[in-house]
Amino acid sequence: MHRTRPTVVYVHGNGNKVRSGLLKSQWDQALFGRDMADASRMAYWAALQYERPLPDFRVDALDGGPVTETESVAAAGAGVFDSPEEFVARTVQEARREAGAPAPESRAVETPAEAAEGALVGWLREMTYLAETLGAAETGGHEGAEDDGALPLEVLPLPRPLRTALFRELVRRTFRDVHAYFFGDRGPAIRQVIEDALPPPGAGPVVVVGHSLGSVAAYEVLREREREVALLVTLGSPLAITEVRDQLARPPAVPAGVRAWRNVSDLRDLVALGHTLRPEYGPPERITDALVTNNSGNHHGISQYLAQAAVREPVQRLFGQPA
Question: What domain of life (predicted)?
Fold first, then answer.
C-alpha cells in the first residue's frame, strides 16, 4: 500500500526575516539536515509587517544571532539602558504607533482593548526585568547568583552592554509584533497566511512547527479550523503565559484535529517564560512539554530549537527517517 508523504508547515516568529525560500531552506537544514523541497512549506508572514526582507547574509538577532557593537550603540541611543519602567513605556508607545492604534484616552473606565493591552504589558515588564537579571548573572554582575537557587547559567562571550542590548531588542521587537497581532490589523492576515500554507485535507499527514508568535497564530488557526494534524510542535512559545492565553479567541485546549502536540522551551527563553501547556490545554495526554538547552545568544533562536532531539525525533519519525 502506498504511503502518502507527510508535509511540514513552518510558521516563523517575531521580527523581520530573510526571504521566504531562504528561510525555509534554513529551517530544513536545522531540522532535517537537508533541503526538503516541496515536502516543507514556510508560512511567511513577515511581509505583512516589513517592507522588505533582511539581506540574505544578515544574521537575525531576534533568532539568537549576535548583536554588533554598532547595533549596541544605536540601541543605547534609543534608550535601551533606561530603567525597565521607562523602557516598557517607550516600547508600548512604539507598538501602538506601528500597529496604528490610538493612544488611550484618560478616562475613569478602561475599554476592554485597553484593559487587555494593560495585561500584556505585565508580561512585557516581566520579560524586561528578567532580561536584566539574566544579563547581569551571565556576565558576573549579579551578586549572590550562585547561592540563590537560580538556574545555573553559562557565561556567554558578550560584554554586558551587548548582552543587555540583545535582550532589550528581543523584548521590544517581540512585544511590537504581539501588539500588532492582537490589537492591530495583523491577526487575521497572519492566520490567513498560515491557512494558505496548509495542504488540502486528505493530502497526507501534516506536521506544523511554530516558533514564538508563530506558534500562537498556528495554534489559533488549528483551533478554529480543526484541521487534521499528525503533530503540532511549538518552540519558544508564549502560549503558557496567562496574559497571552487570555487574548486567545477560544478557551485553551488541544485543537480537535491535532493528534499530538510537543511544546519545547528553554528555561531562559524570555518569550516563553511559562513552560508547561499540559495544565491548561487539555486533554493533557496529547501534550508533551519538553525543556531543552538553547545556547543561542538569547536562548530563543530557532535553529538551536530545531536541532534538539526533542524536536527532531518525533518529526523525522513521521517522515520515516532516523533523527
Answer: Bacteria
